[in-house]
């Protein structure tokens, strides 16, 4: 607590540095205690101070104020830990300055005044414990002492020495019946006397007391509270040895004892300060000062210091430490204090620093009787009563807290929660005793270290003694949830809340439970209730902020991040997070303002090696650029260019800004500088072209472009981009010449990726023909030496020959230039030259795949894998081909060569842990082709779960990225996550899953594998087969039970060593036995429609689902979306006709709003259209397209099923269409299956298709 001399020191520095100057700017941090307790606010203070001139600085006792050029004037009290710091001077007087104390702005600042005049000076009010007070007083500057609270305080011993006379003091002493020291410390009597200086007083004579009082206060003020300049005979200089080895004595050996006077610790030297009268009732001798305690001091063992540790619910442990009452021992050892006595002693020692007797607004009143003494409080606490019960009502403070005391009363609006309505709220449980309190901390510790069994055991021990202890019940619920017992956890958490609705721990845990089941809305509600109870909890606030950004509640996230910034403004990541919050919310101006504000608080620039600052600068530039102010973004970028560590990013951003501003000459230089750093990056070449104003489609620019790339190609023989890019814009002979040079160069080197590098050119038929001509020409050259001459270059010649054959095999295997016979011929010739080439065998397998012979393709790919068993790529390629051949078990065995097979679930479990989506998807599609829809749906559900995991993984990055300073990457990640499910793998799995659900709706018997396999048998055979199937099922169940029993002895663990939950439905039987397949399909379908609206297959499936659910408007929406993508799509034509028929055949009249929407939007097939004629018109228009013919024939079958024979004949004729492909032919066979055509028709179709595709497995008869 400040003494009169310390306040005089502050006033001295205020007069030295800011009096006579103008306040240019004021920075404040909102604090509802420091400002709010006295009816002020940070914003009001900032507004009142900005732009005003400081005329003077004054004090009265422990208060000081600034006289401004106009009211209001700031009146301040430092409280226990408050102080004023100056950026250009050191105001400390007795504590050594720590290194971290030199940082600016300092920690715990409440306001900072920035002075306008030179020299530069900033003044900061700091207060770690927030016991100080800052208020504004509307009064004339000369009449400040006539206002509250100054007028309620007594005279100042220094400035009011004419008032505080010997006669005045004598009158005051005779009117009071309290200890002398208590009278002196009461600020209503005398202002500014503190606990330090009162220990020097002698109470023998009033004159001596008066003289000592005036002398001590004057010396304290004159020396600016510098204790090193105090007189040597002052007791204050020797009182600090209390409790220390060899302390508690004067230099001459006289003993110093400590008494409790008026609730304050007082140092006394008995040999000098003799008792001359009766001792006050509340004066007690400190136990530490007895000789007996001093003798036993050596016997006490010091306690081990516990290391601070962070945890997911650190609030629980901190609450246990702060509220747990320590149970005293019934038989304490000689000289050893009881635990509760230790607690009271600690409070008493703290009182040495805390002046609780000053008076502000309230005038001095007679103290009420009935106050509880320290001994009485100890007795009540030993009986286990709460502090709330032991505290008398007379201690409550009316209006504002004028003495700066902390109050622990908590308020909550918990009664508004639904839980409160279920059962009446009980009283709060009693504080835990020492043993149970220690056990509770171990519960938290065990939860964090994932020692759940130990945690449960400790919780049970507590609950046996305190069955209604809410915090323990909450922690037990959290542990149960971690063990997979969610229902029990929620039930227990609700009981904990009913037992202690005012516990922030219970509400926090309740939110964590909801978060674990992904009910984020309820979790946010619970966190908000916890914050109402414990508004300063950083852990709860952090968890709330994470959920808000996860839910994209940007406004809520801004509020939470603002509170976090106010609580810990010294952390840069809090400033950055708030800026990101505004950025993602679209408020770019405020985001930039937050970043500027933080930079303004930096007293000195960060070191050049500060990576976080470097990234923050680039992020700020990104914000400026996105706001559209490119000119300012460029200026900012050039100001940080020299000091920024990410040189490449700065150069790229600068080049882009210059290009957008139209400064082409500067942009050209910038892009050339980038190409000097990386001459293979296409983006740099494209930027250079734009800077030079070159257009690839223009004949005039083509020569300049050619010369540009030739110049870069000439700089290095190794550069590829400068030689490949010209092939994109050159035409005719120029293209042929450039392509010839490029192909010869690559083929001579034997580069395997030559064909993939140029196949994009095949979109231009003329370029495709030139490349084919060149490649075929190379085969006719003598020994194919790769040169225009006839020299043979030995090894180079052999390599060129192989490369040409390999290139031609890939060329004829490509879908735009496909000739599988030639492709097979060329790849066989290449294999003859190099039979151990993995690449050549892989290409041969691809040729067989395009032939439709998946069996042969898988065999050859497996042979290629055997040529290099250490190559993971060829291993995965082999497994993929085996899956395409429906060899699931064989593919898994192949994959097991590169998986951790000891993990739970074996190789398949490890593939799921690694989120190997390509394998899981291919595995599911293979099972779907085999008719095993249970396992197929299981695999597609796994893909859905993987995307859910990706969504949840954001939680880790919300805090990690900001902590590591990776801001731009974090913003990109958040934006990418917003459209996560437009990923091709999700679309592929979701489409297959929806198809399965449609099959289950159309044929419910498919959910029963027995019925599915036996539906074509006669009744007697079916009965026998069912009996046999049941026996096999019983055998499988028995084997499964034995397997579970073995697993129970040794729990399965995942890749991370954590216990892995057992899959209760490994075969997917429960998935396919759903009673509502269409509703279940929506889980896959809705994200697909939202994030992949241009996927026409997804829109087709959406129509099929919604038309079956009789959701006509949703079905129409899918139709219109598909029409916007491809109005001539064959499936769209069929579905539009089905929709029109559904409308025409509806027995119930549609509600008017729905009918109006359909009539106004469904114009694909108007109501007056003849459907049959419309279908014939469509067939005639697309007569050469097999898929369109299929769609028209399906409509004919729908309109007139009696003519199925004619429709089958027409379908058979599609095999003769020149444009038909193998996939189209397979689709035709599926149409026959859909029509339930007889075996003769199917065999005829298969025979015709086999003649055209003799290698295709789909048309091979068993």
From TrEMBL:
<feature type="compositionally biased region" description="Basic and acidic residues">
    <location>
        <begin position="1011"/>
        <end position="1023"/>
    </location>
</feature>
<dbReference type="GO" id="GO:0019104">
    <property type="term" value="F:DNA N-glycosylase activity"/>
</dbReference>
<dbReference type="InterPro" id="IPR015886">
    <property type="entry name" value="H2TH_FPG"/>
</dbReference>
<keyword id="KW-0326">Glycosidase</keyword>
<dbReference type="InterPro" id="IPR035937">
    <property type="entry name" value="FPG_N"/>
</dbReference>
<dbReference type="InterPro" id="IPR012319">
    <property type="entry name" value="FPG_cat"/>
</dbReference>
<keyword id="KW-0227">DNA damage</keyword>
<dbReference type="GO" id="GO:0003684">
    <property type="term" value="F:damaged DNA binding"/>
</dbReference>
<keyword id="KW-0378">Hydrolase</keyword>
<dbReference type="InterPro" id="IPR021183">
    <property type="entry name" value="NatA_aux_su"/>
</dbReference>
<dbReference type="GO" id="GO:0006284">
    <property type="term" value="P:base-excision repair"/>
</dbReference>
<comment type="similarity">
    <text>Belongs to the FPG family.</text>
</comment>
<dbReference type="Pfam" id="PF01149">
    <property type="entry name" value="Fapy_DNA_glyco"/>
</dbReference>
<feature type="repeat" description="TPR">
    <location>
        <begin position="504"/>
        <end position="537"/>
    </location>
</feature>
<feature type="compositionally biased region" description="Basic and acidic residues">
    <location>
        <begin position="1057"/>
        <end position="1068"/>
    </location>
</feature>
<dbReference type="GO" id="GO:0008270">
    <property type="term" value="F:zinc ion binding"/>
</dbReference>
<feature type="compositionally biased region" description="Basic and acidic residues">
    <location>
        <begin position="380"/>
        <end position="404"/>
    </location>
</feature>
<keyword id="KW-0456">Lyase</keyword>
<dbReference type="Pfam" id="PF12569">
    <property type="entry name" value="NatA_aux_su"/>
</dbReference>
<dbReference type="GO" id="GO:0140078">
    <property type="term" value="F:class I DNA-(apurinic or apyrimidinic site) endonuclease activity"/>
</dbReference>
<dbReference type="Pfam" id="PF13181">
    <property type="entry name" value="TPR_8"/>
</dbReference>
<feature type="domain" description="Formamidopyrimidine-DNA glycosylase catalytic">
    <location>
        <begin position="2"/>
        <end position="132"/>
    </location>
</feature>
<feature type="compositionally biased region" description="Acidic residues">
    <location>
        <begin position="283"/>
        <end position="297"/>
    </location>
</feature>
<keyword id="KW-0511">Multifunctional enzyme</keyword>
<keyword id="KW-0677">Repeat</keyword>
<protein>
    <recommendedName>
        <fullName>DNA-(apurinic or apyrimidinic site) lyase</fullName>
        <ecNumber>4.2.99.18</ecNumber>
    </recommendedName>
</protein>
<keyword id="KW-0234">DNA repair</keyword>
<keyword id="KW-0802">TPR repeat</keyword>
<feature type="compositionally biased region" description="Acidic residues">
    <location>
        <begin position="347"/>
        <end position="361"/>
    </location>
</feature>
<dbReference type="Pfam" id="PF13432">
    <property type="entry name" value="TPR_16"/>
</dbReference>
<feature type="compositionally biased region" description="Polar residues">
    <location>
        <begin position="424"/>
        <end position="437"/>
    </location>
</feature>
<keyword id="KW-0238">DNA-binding</keyword>
<feature type="region of interest" description="Disordered">
    <location>
        <begin position="1011"/>
        <end position="1069"/>
    </location>
</feature>
<dbReference type="InterPro" id="IPR019734">
    <property type="entry name" value="TPR_rpt"/>
</dbReference>
<feature type="compositionally biased region" description="Polar residues">
    <location>
        <begin position="321"/>
        <end position="332"/>
    </location>
</feature>
<dbReference type="GO" id="GO:0031415">
    <property type="term" value="C:NatA complex"/>
</dbReference>
<feature type="compositionally biased region" description="Basic and acidic residues">
    <location>
        <begin position="1031"/>
        <end position="1045"/>
    </location>
</feature>
<dbReference type="InterPro" id="IPR011990">
    <property type="entry name" value="TPR-like_helical_dom_sf"/>
</dbReference>
<feature type="region of interest" description="Disordered">
    <location>
        <begin position="272"/>
        <end position="437"/>
    </location>
</feature>
<dbReference type="InterPro" id="IPR010979">
    <property type="entry name" value="Ribosomal_uS13-like_H2TH"/>
</dbReference>
């Amino acid at each position: 607590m400040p003494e009169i001399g310390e306040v005089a020191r502050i006033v001295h520095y205020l007069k030295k540095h800011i009096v006579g100057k103008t306040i240019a700017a004021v920075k404040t941090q909102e604090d509802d205690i420091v400002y709010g307790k006295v009816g002020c606010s940070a914003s009001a203070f900032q507004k009142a101070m900005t732009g005003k001139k400081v005329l003077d600085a004054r004090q009265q006792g422990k208060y000081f104020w600034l006289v401004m050029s106009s009211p209001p004037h700031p009146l301040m009290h430092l409280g226990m830990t408050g102080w004023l710091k100056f950026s250009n001077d050191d105001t400390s007087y007795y504590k050594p300055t720590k290194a971290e104390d030199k940082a600016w702005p300092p920690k715990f600042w409440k306001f900072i005044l920035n002075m306008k005049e030179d020299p530069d000076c900033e003044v900061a009010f700091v207060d770690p414990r927030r016991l100080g007070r800052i208020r504004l007083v509307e009064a004339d500057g000369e009449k400040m002492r006539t206002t509250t609270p100054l007028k309620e305080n007594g005279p100042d011993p220094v400035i009011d020495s004419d008032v505080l006379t010997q006669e005045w003091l004598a009158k005051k002493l005779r009117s009071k019946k309290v200890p002398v020291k208590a009278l002196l410390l009461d600020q209503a009597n005398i202002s500014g006397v503190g606990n330090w200086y009162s220990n020097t007083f002698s109470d023998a004579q009033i004159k001596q007391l008066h003289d000592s009082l005036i002398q001590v206060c004057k010396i304290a003020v004159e020396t600016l509270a510098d204790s090193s300049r105090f007189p040597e005979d002052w007791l204050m200089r020797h009182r600090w040895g209390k409790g220390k080895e060899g302390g508690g004595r004067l230099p001459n050996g006289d003993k110093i004892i400590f008494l409790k006077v008026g609730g304050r610790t007082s140092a006394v030297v008995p040999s000098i300060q003799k008792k001359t009268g009766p001792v006050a009732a509340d004066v007690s001798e400190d136990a530490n000062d007895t000789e007996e305690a001093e003798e036993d001091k050596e016997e006490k063992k010091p306690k081990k210091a516990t290391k601070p540790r962070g945890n997911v619910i650190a609030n629980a442990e901190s609450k246990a430490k702060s509220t747990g009452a320590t149970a005293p021992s019934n038989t304490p050892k000689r000289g050893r204090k009881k635990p509760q006595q230790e607690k009271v002693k600690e409070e008493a020692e703290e009182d040495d620093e805390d002046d609780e007797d000053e008076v502000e607004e309230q005038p001095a009143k007679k103290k009420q009787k009935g106050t509880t003494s320290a001994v009485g409080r100890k007795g009540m606490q030993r009986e286990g009563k709460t502090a709330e019960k032991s505290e008398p009502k007379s201690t409550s403070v009316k209006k504002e807290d004028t003495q700066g005391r902390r109050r622990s009363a908590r308020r909550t609006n918990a009664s508004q929660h639904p839980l409160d309505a279920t059962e009446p709220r009980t009283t709060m449980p009693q504080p835990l005793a020492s043993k149970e309190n220690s056990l509770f901390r171990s519960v938290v510790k065990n939860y964090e270290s994932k020692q759940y069994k130990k945690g449960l055991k400790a919780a049970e021990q507590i609950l046996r003694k305190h069955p209604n202890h809410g915090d323990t019940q909450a922690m037990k619920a959290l542990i149960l949830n971690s063990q997979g017992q969610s229902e029990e956890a929620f039930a227990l958490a609700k009981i904990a809340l009913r037992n202690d609705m005012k516990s922030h721990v219970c509400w926090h845990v309740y939110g964590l439970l909801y978060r674990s089941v992904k009910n984020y809305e309820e979790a946010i509600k619970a966190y908000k209730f916890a914050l109402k109870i414990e508004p300063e909890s950083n852990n709860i606030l952090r968890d709330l902020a994470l959920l808000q950004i996860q839910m994209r509640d940007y406004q809520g996230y801004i509020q939470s991040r603002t509170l976090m910034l106010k609580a810990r403004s010294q952390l840069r990541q809090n400033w950055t997070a708030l800026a990101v919050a505004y950025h993602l919310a679209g408020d770019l101006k405020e985001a930039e303002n937050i970043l500027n504000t933080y930079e303004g608080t930096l007293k000195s620039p960060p070191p050049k090696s500060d990576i976080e600052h470097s990234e923050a600068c680039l992020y700020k530039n990104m914000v400026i650029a996105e706001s559209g102010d490119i000119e300012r973004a460029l200026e900012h970028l050039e100001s940080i260019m020299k000091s920024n560590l990410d040189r490449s990013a700065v150069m790229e951003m600068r080049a882009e800004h210059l290009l957008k501003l139209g400064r082409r000459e500067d942009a050209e230089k910038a892009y050339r500088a980038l190409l000097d750093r990386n001459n293979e990056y296409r983006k740099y070449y494209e930027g250079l072209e734009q800077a030079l104003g070159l257009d690839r489609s223009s004949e005039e620019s083509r020569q300049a472009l050619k010369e540009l790339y030739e110049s870069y190609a000439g700089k290095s023989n190794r550069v590829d981009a400068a030689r490949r890019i010209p092939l994109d814009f050159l035409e005719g002979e120029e293209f042929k010449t450039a392509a010839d040079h490029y192909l010869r160069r690559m083929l001579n080197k034997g580069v395997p990726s030559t064909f993939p590098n140029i196949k994009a050119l095949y979109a231009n038929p003329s370029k495709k023909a030139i490349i084919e001509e060149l490649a075929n020409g190379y085969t006719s050259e003598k020994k194919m030496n790769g040169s225009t001459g006839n020299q043979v270059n030995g090894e180079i010649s052999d390599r060129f020959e192989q490369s040409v054959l390999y290139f031609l095999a890939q060329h004829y295997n490509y879908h735009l230039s496909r000739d599988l016979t030639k492709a097979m011929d060329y790849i066989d010739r290449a294999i003859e030259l190099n039979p151990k080439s993995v690449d050549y065998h892989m290409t041969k397998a691809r040729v067989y795949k395009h032939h439709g012979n998946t069996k042969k393709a898988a065999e050859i790919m497996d042979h290629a894998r055997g040529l290099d068993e250490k190559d993971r790529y060829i291993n995965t390629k082999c497994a993929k081909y085996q899956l395409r051949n429906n060899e699931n078990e064989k593919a898994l065995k192949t994959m097991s060569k590169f998986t951790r097979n000891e993990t739970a679930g074996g190789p398949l479990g490890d593939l799921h842990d690694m989120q190997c989506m390509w394998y899981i998807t291919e595995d599911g599609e293979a099972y779907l082709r085999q008719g095993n829809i249970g396992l197929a749906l299981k695999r597609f559900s796994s893909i859905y779960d993987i995307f859910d995991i990706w969504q949840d993984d954001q939680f880790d990055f919300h805090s990690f990225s900001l902590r590591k300073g990776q801001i731009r990457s974090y913003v990109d990640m958040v934006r990418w996550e917003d459209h996560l499910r437009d990923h091709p793998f999700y679309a592929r799995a979701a489409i297959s899953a929806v198809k399965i659900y449609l099959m289950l709706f159309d044929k419910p018997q498919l959910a029963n594998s027995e019925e599915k396999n036996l539906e074509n048998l006669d009744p007697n055979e079916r009965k026998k087969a069912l009996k046999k199937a049941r026996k096999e099922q019983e055998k499988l169940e028995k084997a499964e039970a034995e397997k579970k029993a073995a697993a129970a002895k040794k729990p399965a663990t995942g890749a991370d060593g954590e216990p892995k939950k057992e899959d209760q439905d490994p075969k997917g039987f429960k998935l396919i036995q759903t009673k509502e397949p269409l509703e279940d399909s929506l889980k896959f379908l809705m994200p697909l429609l939202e994030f992949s609206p241009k996927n026409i297959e997804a829109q087709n499936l959406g129509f099929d689902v919604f038309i079956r659910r009789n959701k006509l408007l949703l079905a129409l929406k899918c139709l219109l979306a598909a029409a916007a993508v491809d109005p001539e799509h064959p499936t769209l034509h069929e579905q539009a006709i089905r929709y029109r028929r559904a409308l025409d055949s509806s027995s119930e009249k549609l509600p008017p709003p729905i009918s109006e929407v359909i009539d106004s939007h469904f114009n694909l097939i108007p109501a007056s259209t003849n459907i049959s004629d419309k279908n014939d018109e469509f067939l005639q228009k697309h007569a050469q397209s097999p898929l369109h013919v299929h769609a028209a024939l399906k409509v004919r079958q729908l309109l007139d099923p009696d003519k199925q024979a004619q429709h089958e004949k027409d379908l058979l004729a599609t095999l003769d269409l020149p444009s038909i492909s193998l996939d189209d032919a397979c689709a035709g066979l599926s149409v026959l299956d859909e029509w339930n055509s007889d075996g003769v028709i199917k065999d005829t179709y298969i025979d015709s298709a086999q003649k055209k595709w003799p290698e295709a497995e789909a048309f091979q008869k068993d």
